[in-house]
Design brief:
alpha/beta, Rossmann fold, 8-stranded mixed β-sheet, two-stranded parallel ribbon, 10 strands, tRNA (guanine(46)-N7)-methyltransferase activity, SAM-dependent_MTases_sf, tRNA_methyltr_TrmB_bact, transferase, S-adenosyl-L-methionine
């Protein structure tokens, strides 16, 4: 659940993902360019770099921390990017379940998600069947899911989870593998910058949305593991 601040909270006016069962991406980001969504943008470093690298794209960051959604969205507006790049306060798992239309998103980015290690924190994990079902429904055919982590065990877990979902196929450097040696998007998150500077290995996973069967709905193939949802929208990247 997203934190609901008191009226006198310093970030009470932070921009939020709208209420309602059907939220149109075109209402959030008017325009015609391809839409890319970052789950957990943190301080917004990747959003700014990606906006510069892909000036035709519309970008949306879904950030569960009220402070950073407010600060980043204001910086985007002041930088003249507010028309095509936004940061909204949201639990991404819940918000993406209400985003429409199906087959409307070109890419999803998750940078260093799930900074939780204890058993009692498992409910906070953002990656899981419920999120993957939403991503599968929203991605265009051939759309991309890019995940990075500097924790080897988490990389193995994500590869297992995504690989088990029928809507995704690996699109890494080698046939049949999701692993990439380099980030291909011309933009890095702050955590990735720090990891590279410190000489830490970064696991990068790339998947594509399989083509939907002819005559099937846009959400076809998105039901694997439905109802077995994971956590409460933990922040990604942490910086």
């Amino acid at each position: 659940m997203v934190f609901q601040p008191r009226p006198n909270h310093p970030y009470a006016d932070a921009p939020r993902f709208p209420d309602g069962d059907d939220v149109s991406i075109d209402d959030l980001l008017p325009g015609t360019g391809p839409v890319e969504i970052e789950i957990g943008p943190g301080r917004g470093g990747f959003l700014f770099e990606r906006a510069a690298a892909s000036p035709a794209s519309r970008l949306l960051g879904l950030e569960i921390r009220l402070k950073w959604s407010a600060i980043v969205d204001e910086r985007l507006r002041k930088g003249g990017l507010g028309g095509r790049v936004r940061a909204l306060n949201a639990d991404a798992r819940e918000a993406l379940g209400r985003l429409r239309p199906d087959a409307s998103i070109a890419r999803f980015f998750l940078h260093f998600p799930d900074p939780w290690w204890k058993k009692r924190h498992e409910k906070r994990l953002v990656m899981g069947p419920a999120l993957l079902d939403s991503l599968a429904r929203l991605l265009v055919d051939g759309g991309e899911l890019f995940v990075q982590t500097d924790v080897e065990e988490r990389a193995a877990l994500y590869a297992e989870q995504i690989g088990a979902h029928p809507a995704f196929e690996p699109a890494g450097d080698a046939p049949g593998s999701p692993h990439l040696g380099e980030n291909p998007y011309g933009a890095r998150s702050p955590r990735e910058h720090h990891a590279i500077a410190d000489g830490l290995p970064v696991s990068r996973l790339l998947y594509r949305r399989r083509p939907r069967e002819a005559g099937a709905g846009a959400g076809a193939g998105a039901g694997a593991g439905a109802g077995a949802g994971a956590g409460g929208g933990a922040p990604a990247d942490g910086g």
